[in-house]
Specification:
Blueprint: H1 15-36, H2 44-63, H3 65-75, H4 84-93, H5 96-114, H6 118-142, H7 152-180, H8 186-190, H9 193-215, H10 219-243, H11 255-272, E1 276-283, H12 286-293, H13 295-312, E2 318-323, E3 326-332, H14 336-351, E4 355-358, E5 364-367, E6 372-379, H15 386-402, E7 408-410
Parallel strand pairs: 6-7
Antiparallel strand pairs: 1-3, 1-6, 2-3, 4-5
Helix pairs in contact: 1-6, 1-7, 2-4, 2-5, 2-10, 3-10, 4-5, 4-6, 4-9, 5-6, 6-7, 7-9, 12-13, 13-14
Organism: Actinokineospora spheciospongiae
InterPro entries: Diguanylate_Cyclase, GGDEF_dom, Nucleotide_cyclase, Rev_trsase/Diguanyl_cyclase
Transmembrane segments: 17-38, 47-63, 83-106, 118-143, 155-179, 199-218
Length: 412
């Protein structure tokens, strides 16, 4: 008998989150239609600014696409994009219908880079467009010429419009996270200090671009290199942070990085009601490698095991090294039988290793016949805590070692 497939995509979220997303998108669609039906008049200067903003935005998105993809991969969670640098100036500079058209063009160009499910990209776009339309309304309601004639009042209106955009965008994201996460924390809902600082910086740059475009329509083209450099700098900072999460000998996650990523995976598993498994690997007689050939040879074996784990685990598995000769895997959407299958691939891969190294005297050697004992613990649904799964898998490793090594044991 075939079981019913669990819902995926938007419909896999809790009902309050679905209602929130659909209502938010409906409000955004209504606001977009209202703006498109507004006065269609446009001066020649508006067309020049429209073309400059769309062209500069497209150039920025194209030139920084690899950097943005790398940043998105590094994060693995909510990601701050910098398209607001072009969207906010369009909102406060252009006629309403032209502003909407430029926003839609910019968001559509972002879709191939975003690499997100359609429902998430659609909501992300709504979370950008509705705040931008609110910023547009602030400027229109004020009745002040905030860009062409500098005045304290006009500048205050422009800053207010930027603050409204920032607040509504943050609230949109916080709302969906709070409603779709089983146990939302304040830090998860409001975002990290770094995320908020990055978002605020992008909004401030949008204000500066708006002021520049008001006086020289070609100004956006001069901003593109600056933004690409900003994106690259943000990637380097994230890479530095990633270095603190990565084991330098194996290029796997270290304990800190593994726990951070596992926490995110467990949240997804609880939301979807899917099983998870943990496998703990302990290399057999690893001390003999160090004693016989020296610690550099031991490091070579660890690197080889890391390569085996990269090759034999699946996309989506979270693999880390806890220190010494102990490695750990989180296997999402995996029951006990599937986890044993993955563990067996790893066990065979380790047993087949031929590791070139040097002995204590610097002579070349090839280290073979290495084995590993593996303990597996699984939960049919993600009801067990990570601590419990690790404890059970550790006990299974001890059983594997005490009954002969080079084998897999599954926790009861």
């Amino acid at each position: 008998m075939t079981g019913v497939e669990p819902p995926t995509g938007l419909w896999s979220l809790p009902r309050p989150a679905i209602a929130y997303i659909l209502l938010f998108e409906l409000l955004t669609a209504a606001a977009l239609v209202a703006a498109l039906l507004a006065d269609r008049s446009a001066a020649a200067a508006d067309w020049r600014r429209f073309g400059a903003l769309v062209l500069a935005g497209a150039a920025h998105l194209w030139l920084s696409r690899r950097t943005e993809e790398a940043r998105r991969d590094n994060r693995g969670g909510p990601h701050v994009d910098t398209s607001v640098v072009w969207i906010l100036p369009a909102a406060v500079l252009l006629p309403a219908w032209m502003a909407v058209l430029s926003m839609l063009l910019l968001r559509l160009q972002l879709y191939p880079v975003a690499r997100r499910p359609l429902h998430r990209f659609t909501f992300g776009s709504a979370g950008t467009l509705l705040p931008a339309l609110a910023a547009l309304s602030v400027v229109r309601v004020s009745g002040l010429d905030v860009l062409h004639r500098f005045s304290p009042g006009g500048f205050l209106v422009l800053l207010t419009a930027a603050a409204v955009y920032f607040a509504l965008n943050a609230a949109a994201i916080a709302g969906v996270i709070a409603l779709s996460t089983p146990h939302p924390t304040r830090a998860r809902v409001t975002g990290t200090r770094r995320d908020n600082a990055m978002a605020a910086l992008a909004v401030n740059l949008g204000v500066l671009v708006a002021l520049a475009v008001a006086h020289a329509w070609v100004a956006p083209l001069l901003v593109v290199p600056l933004l690409c450099a900003l994106d690259w700098g943000a990637l380097q900072l994230e890479n530095l942070r990633g270095d603190s999460r990565t084991d330098d000998k194996t290029d796997l996650l270290n304990s800190r990085g593994w726990h951070e990523q596992v926490d995110r995976e467990l949240v997804r598993a609880r939301r979807r009601g899917t099983p998870v498994a943990v496998a703990v690997l302990d290399l057999d007689h690893f001390k003999q490698v160090n004693d016989t050939w020296g610690h550099p040879a031991g490091d070579a074996v660890l690197r080889a095991v890391g390569a085996v784990l990269h090759e034999t685990t699946r996309q989506g598995d979270v693999v880390g090294r806890f220190g010494g000769e102990e490695f750990v895997l989180l296997l999402p959407d995996t029951d006990a039988a599937q986890a044993v299958h993955v563990a067996e691939r790893v066990r065979r891969g380790v047993a087949a290793m031929h590791v070139p190294a040097k002995d204590k005297r610097g002579n070349p050697v090839t280290i073979t016949a290495r084995t590993t004992s593996i303990g597996v613990a699984a939960a049919p649904a993600p009801t067990a805590t990570l601590e419990a799964l690790l404890r059970q898998a550790d006990a299974a490793v001890y059983e594997a070692k005490s009954t002969g090594r080079n084998q897999i044991r599954v926790a009861p």
